[in-house]
């Protein structure tokens, strides 16, 4: 039996919808005891699945279906309002470019900060430092504060630290959105290498051809609910069918 590395059980995540109301409307709401506006909606609704070690999984669905929220719950950046998320081993990845980076620190300092957040010791980071910088190809700017980085430079450094943190579970949200083509190719080669080493991958991308190539399994979401779980090619076909309707 393969080891379960991600266990999502009955997960619900709510967000508050904000409305702009006039003073009169606010007064009426208060007088009619409706209280201050606090409409919530379920970005994720009772989602459950397990992912075993070595699986490559695409989270699929249209805009707003809850894919990124689910990835953030798996990474621990967000906490669920209901249900549980359990992970085993080191979880790293690229969830939000720039998250885990401090704008006033240099690239070099941020490698140490980000590496520590990802669970690396100072010695491990120091040992891999040259490799991290070489992969990111931003040597020239490594002593510049990252607030002056372009989004592509951010991505390069963040991806490089994450991939060198030796993660058992690697999460990627729209990896390729801001990287240029040569860097995208390099990232994909790295992801393929992680895959062949038997690491677990969970990927969010609207590039359906790309995810069907990388991932074996697909989890399909619609408006926060899980509506399918099967082979990535089947789930991509279902998503494309929905699109046609
Ligand atoms: N921090 C937040 N506060 C309020 N609403 C949020 C927040 N984060 C996400 N949402 C809402 O939750 C829903 C799901 O968002 P999510 O980003 O998970 O979708 P997604 O499937 O990744 O979409 P996309 O394909 O557009 O990236 C959306 O309606 C979004 O507006």
Walk me through the structure.
Strand 8 and strand 9 form a beta hairpin. The protein has helices at residues 23-31, 67-75, 107-117, 122-136, 151-164, 181-196, 208-214, 232-244; strands at 4-17, 39-52, 56-60, 82-87, 91-94, 169-173, 200-204, 217-222, 225-231. The model has no long low-confidence stretch (mean pLDDT 89). With 245 residues, the protein is of the alpha/beta class. Helix content is 38%, strand content 27%. The strands form two sheets. The protein has a six-stranded mixed sheet, with helices on both faces. Strands 2-1-4 form a three-stranded antiparallel sheet. The protein is built from eight helices and nine strands. The longest helix has 16 residues, at 181-196. The chain is globular, with a radius of gyration of 20 Å. Helix 3 crosses helix 4 (122-136) and helix 4 (122-136) packs across helix 5 (151-164). It has a single domain (55-77, 90-244), classed as Rossmann fold (3-Layer(aba) Sandwich). Adenosine-5'-triphosphate binds at residues 15, 43, 61, 63-69. Residues 15, 43, 61, 63-69 line the site of adenosine-5'-triphosphate. It comes from Xylanimonas cellulosilytica (strain DSM 15894 / JCM 12276 / CECT 5975 / KCTC 9989 / LMG 20990 / NBRC 107835 / XIL07). This is ABC transporter related protein. GO terms for molecular function: ABC-type transporter activity; ATP binding; ATP hydrolysis activity. Belongs to the ABC transporter superfamily. Residues 26-245 form the ABC transporter domain.
């Amino acid at each position: 039996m393969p080891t379960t590395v991600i266990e999502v059980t009955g997960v619900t995540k709510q967000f508050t919808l904000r409305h702009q109301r006039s003073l009169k409307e606010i007064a009426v709401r208060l007088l009619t005891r409706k209280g201050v506006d606090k409409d919530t909606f379920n970005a994720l609704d009772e989602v459950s699945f397990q992912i075993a070690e070595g699986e490559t999984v695409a989270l699929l669905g249209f805009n707003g279906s809850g894919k990124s929220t689910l990835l953030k719950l798996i990474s621990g950046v967000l906490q669920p309002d209901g249900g549980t998320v359990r992970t085993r081993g080191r979880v790293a990845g690229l969830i939000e470019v720039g998250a885990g980076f401090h704008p006033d620190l240099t690239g070099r300092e941020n490698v140490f900060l980000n590496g520590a957040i990802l669970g690396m010791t100072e010695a491990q980071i120091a040992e891999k430092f040259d490799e991290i910088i070489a992969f990111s190809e931003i040597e020239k700017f490594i002593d510049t504060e990252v607030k002056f980085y372009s989004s592509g430079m951010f991505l390069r450094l963040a991806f490089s630290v994450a991939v060198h943190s030796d993660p058992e579970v690697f999460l990627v949200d729209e990896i390729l959105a801001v990287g240029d083509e040569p860097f995208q190719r390099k990232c994909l080669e790295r992801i393929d290498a992680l895959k062949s080493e038997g690491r677990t991958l969970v990927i969010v991308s609207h590039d359906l051809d790309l995810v069907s190539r990388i991932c074996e399994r697909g989890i399909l979401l619609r408006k926060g609910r899980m509506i399918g779980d099967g082979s990535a090619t089947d789930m991509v076909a279902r998503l494309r069918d929905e699109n046609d309707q």
